[in-house]
């Protein structure tokens, strides 16, 4: 454990504008408080989530506590950090994407977000996808795929509010056809909702192929695969879509 004076010094550095100094101090405070995160994560086991994922989210909560803690608060840092960590984990569980995302993709999305924050601090503005990709030595398509994969999905049947009569009003109830819109509009909405349930690679190929009107050869060049691989992914994606539409 850190002594009080050492902690105060590290916290001041962690909240400084010097990125290098700040990151080093944050890492030191994190290292000495990991057991706190572990003890909290154990409260959320057996809920269908991997321990490592919850631990990573807990660390994000701890980082937020480091960034926001004021030495003028009349409480210990651990007392302040515990509800921040718990809140971050509960938010993750509440907002967890129903489309299961692989751990490598989640880890990439986490790296993208951290790089985004770092570049925003350095540039004084929101960084572009190209700038983030260059910083991580990745293709822009990989950055986009990672960010899209962790976006929360909204169901057409999500309740938006309750009417005066007590009946629930859903998002679907508030959608209407506009002049000139064909009657198959809601069928297209159903298809789009099914597309969100595809694995990232399959969804990317389908989007480029049928929404961006790209050829298989153009898609292969864009995402760095062979045309044969793109063709195989497209066939697999269409097979999944047919199955999901039949069961929905």
Automatic annotation (TrEMBL):
Q: Which organism is it from?
A: Sporomusa ovata
GO terms for MF:
DNA binding; sigma factor activity
Which keywords are on file for this protein? DNA-binding, Sigma factor, Sporulation, Transcription, Transcription regulation
Q: What is this protein called?
A: RNA polymerase sigma factor
What the record says about family reads: Belongs to the sigma-70 factor family.
Q: Which GO terms describe its biological process?
A: DNA-templated transcription initiation; sporulation resulting in formation of a cellular spore
- The stretch of residues making up the signal peptide is none
Kindly give the Gene3D superfamilies that the UniProt entry links to this protein.
Answer: 1.20.120.1810, Winged helix-like DNA-binding domain superfamily/Winged helix DNA-binding domain (1.10.10.10)
One family name in Pfam for this protein: Sigma70_r3
